[in-house]
Specification:
Structural class: mainly alpha
Number of strands: 0
Radius of gyration: 31 Å
Strand content: under 5%
Distance between the termini: 98 Å
Shape: rod-shaped
Length: about 90
Amino acid sequence: MAKTNQKCVRLSDKVTKYIEQYRGANFSEKLENLVLDMEERRDQLVQDWERLQAQIADKHHEMVMIQDRVTKLREVDRRLQPLADSLLDLMKLP
């Protein structure tokens, strides 16, 4: 691929470190590989993101349903506790 564009950019140390760790023989090649790889994977990354968001929504709904059941069971337990106490008291009578 012909490389006719020459640019001067200012980058933070953090971004420079990421680029320098990428595959390639020199800084320009590493930066180009990084940009091309990310752009070529964009659709897959978006699909993965959407799939994960859907899974999170499903799990959140499941968690809310479980929390509702636990709340209801606690209420049943609270209401039955006096009955259970009375039965235990009756069992203690001679």
